[in-house]
Every structure is written in C-alpha cells, then in structure tokens.
Amino acid sequence: MPRQNTEKLILIVDDSKDIRDVYGHFLKEEGFRVASATDGQEALEEAVKLQPD
Fold first, then answer.
1. Fewest CB within 10 angstroms: 1, 26, 40, 52, which?
2. CA atoms of 53 and 15, how far apart (whole Å)
3. Beta bridge mates, 13
4. How far apart (Å, rounded) are the C-alpha atoms in residues 30 and 11?
5. 4 against 13, higher pLDDT
6. What is the rounded distance in angstroms from the CA atom of residue 52 to the CA atom of residue 43?
7. Which residues contact 2 (CB under 8 A, 6 or more apart)?
8. 43 closest CA partner among 6, 3, 15, 4
9. From CA 43, how far away is CA 4, in angstroms rounded?
10. What is residue 14's DSSP assignment?
11. β-bridge mates for residue 37, sequence order
C-alpha cells in the first residue's frame, strides 16, 4: 500500500532510461509523483518549471 506522499514530486535525473524507469516505478509505488530528465541541462529546466520537492 502506498504511503501518503502524493503531494511530493521527485525529479529523477539519469542518462539511462532503464534507471529512470526503475526508480520511477518504485517511487510511484510509494505514492510519489515522478518527473524525469536525461541530463543536467534538462534537469535544470525541469526543476525551474516543476519545482520538485
């Protein structure tokens, strides 16, 4: 059963899609919202736009 983390947004940054998918899967199971980026530049853009926790 997911924990009560539905308000928290996690930004996963990794150049490997497989790694992003695995982390995303487990974080979603725990009730987090998940966004991802493939590199530092994209991560900075997403962080400004999404304001992750």
1. 1
2. 21
3. 37
4. 15
5. 13
6. 11
7. 29, 30, 31
8. 15
9. 25
10. -
11. 13
C-alpha count within 13 angstroms, C-beta hemisphere, residue 28: 10
- The model's pLDDT over 5-46, given as tens digits with 9 standing for 90+, comes to 558 999 999 999 999 999 999 999 999 999 999 999 999 999
Q: What is the predicted pLDDT for the residue at 7?
A: 84
Residue 26 token pair = 């487990």
**pTM, entire model:** 0.84
Q: How far apart are CA 4 and CA 16, in angstroms?
A: 28
Q: Amino acid identity, residue 50?
A: L
CA-CA distance, 52 to 34, in Å (whole number)?
9
**Residue 33, CA atoms < 13 Å, CB-side half-sphere:** 8
